[in-house]
């Protein structure tokens, strides 16, 4: 009895082919009739994912509170690391409470949280530090945590942690690179030495200090907890006023800060068509080293170990094979889409979705689809204008 099905990297769950979207499975139990095995969908016991145990089922006596902002319903890698850090240092009588600013649709239990408090009224695009500080303080008052942990980032969490520590005169450690149940450490002397101290009341964790993949799960209980922003806004003239967000052309955004990037490799020769697609999608432009060395793109567009490291939510690679240097530059991207004729290219192993097609033909098709969508939208808008509706109906 032999297994005739190939094992595919599970990090690449889908492949888009000319025949449509195909789901990739990990394999099946080998039987004499391979066709029957494929139809039955039976899987080898070794490939079945075993459920993880609960971290603790004891009655909680203490609390660790983790606070973080959500982005489009999910926590970023840094926030997941911070939550994992709290779960790893918690003992059997300590529960981990996750306070999320914004909507959260993820699996809190899988991330290590025992309780989840969601505050959907807070949008990451809106700057409301006073309201967020009041919400955090109210949550601390309700749960009396022994320690409060936040990601030490530049997108709101680090500032919130510092504001809270200053407001309540709490002990705080920032840029923490090492943590356990008794102490924290941070780099000093130009990162040549470590300074350690006892675990403070507020811990701001540096990125990549904790491995977020946990061997256990939390209880994941959602708590209905209401925070009334209006009732707590006692200042007639707040000290901080949100001036909103200034929208700029995606081409002006640095690659390190871009949230959506389309990148060209050796398979892209029609640069103007590629740039039109980037402008249509509102994406920043990147390139592989081969495309840069070939003179098609400037050096500041190069992504990789010898170029720039990016952290985009969406990264689309057109005609990039995926050398190890390039993969290193996109290791922190959330969703990677690869368009390549070679299904076995290294970029396909990293990609969440692989489109097996010619890069330039795909770019042309996307530009045509975008033009058609713009035309349909313009027609719909014209028909809805005063004086145009009746004319459109009569026609």
UniProtKB/TrEMBL annotation:
Keyword Lipid biosynthesis attached: no
Residue span, Electron transfer flavoprotein alpha subunit C-terminal domain: 255-331
InterPro entries, sorted: DHS-like_NAD/FAD-binding_dom, ETF_a/b_N, ETF_a/FixB, ETF_asu_C, Rossmann-like_a/b/a_fold
Keywords of this entry: Electron transport, Transport
BP term (GO), one: fatty acid beta-oxidation using acyl-CoA dehydrogenase
Matching SUPFAM superfamilies: Adenine nucleotide alpha hydrolases-like, DHS-like NAD/FAD-binding domain
Keyword Transport included in the entry's annotation: yes
A GO MF term: flavin adenine dinucleotide binding
Classification via Gene3D superfamilies: HUPs, TPP-binding domain
Electron transfer flavoprotein alpha/beta-subunit N-terminal domain location: 63-212
Protein's recorded name: Electron transfer flavoprotein subunit alpha
């Amino acid at each position: 009895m032999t297994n005739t099905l190939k094992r595919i990297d599970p990090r690449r769950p889908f492949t888009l082919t000319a025949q449509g979207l195909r789901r990739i499975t990990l394999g099946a139990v080998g039987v004499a009739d391979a066709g029957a095995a494929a139809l039955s969908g039976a899987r080898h016991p070794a490939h079945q994912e075993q459920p993880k145990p609960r971290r603790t089922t004891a009655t909680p006596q203490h609390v660790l509170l983790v606070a973080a902002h959500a982005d489009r319903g999910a926590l970023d890698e840094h926030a997941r690391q911070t939550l994992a850090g709290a779960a790893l240092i918690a003992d059997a009588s300590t529960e981990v409470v996750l306070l999320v600013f914004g909507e959260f649709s993820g699996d809190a239990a899988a991330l290590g949280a025992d309780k989840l408090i969601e505050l959907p009224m807070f949008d990451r695009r809106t700057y409301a530090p006073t309201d967020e500080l009041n919400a955090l303080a109210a949550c601390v008052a309700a749960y009396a945590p022994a320690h409060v942990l936040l990601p030490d980032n530049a997108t709101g969490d680090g500032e919130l942690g510092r504001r809270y520590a200053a407001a309540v005169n709490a002990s705080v450690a920032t840029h923490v690179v090492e943590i356990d149940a008794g102490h924290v450490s941070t780099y000093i002397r130009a990162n040549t030495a470590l300074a350690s101290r006892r675990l403070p009341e507020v811990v701001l964790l540096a990125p990549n200090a904790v491995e977020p993949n946990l061997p256990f799960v939390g209880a994941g209980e959602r708590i209905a907890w209401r925070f009334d922003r209006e009732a707590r806004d006692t200042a007639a003239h707040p000290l901080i006023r949100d001036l909103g967000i200034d929208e700029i052309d995606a081409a002006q955004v640095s690659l390190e800060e871009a949230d959506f990037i389309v990148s060209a490799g050796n398979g892209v020769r029609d640069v103007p068509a590629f740039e039109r697609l980037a402008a249509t999608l509102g994406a920043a432009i990147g390139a592989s080293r081969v495309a840069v060395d070939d003179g098609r793109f400037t050096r500041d567009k190069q992504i990789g170990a010898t170029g720039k490291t990016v952290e985009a939510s969406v990264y689309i690679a057109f005609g990039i094979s995926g050398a190890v240097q390039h993969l290193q530059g996109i290791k922190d991207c959330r969703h990677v889409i690869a368009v390549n004729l070679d299904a076995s290219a290294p970029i396909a192993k990293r990609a969440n979705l692989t489109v097996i097609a010619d890069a330039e033909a795909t770019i042309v098709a996307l530009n045509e689809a975008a033009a058609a969508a713009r035309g349909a939208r313009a027609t719909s808008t014209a028909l809805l204008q005063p004086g145009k509706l009746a004319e459109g109906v009569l026609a």
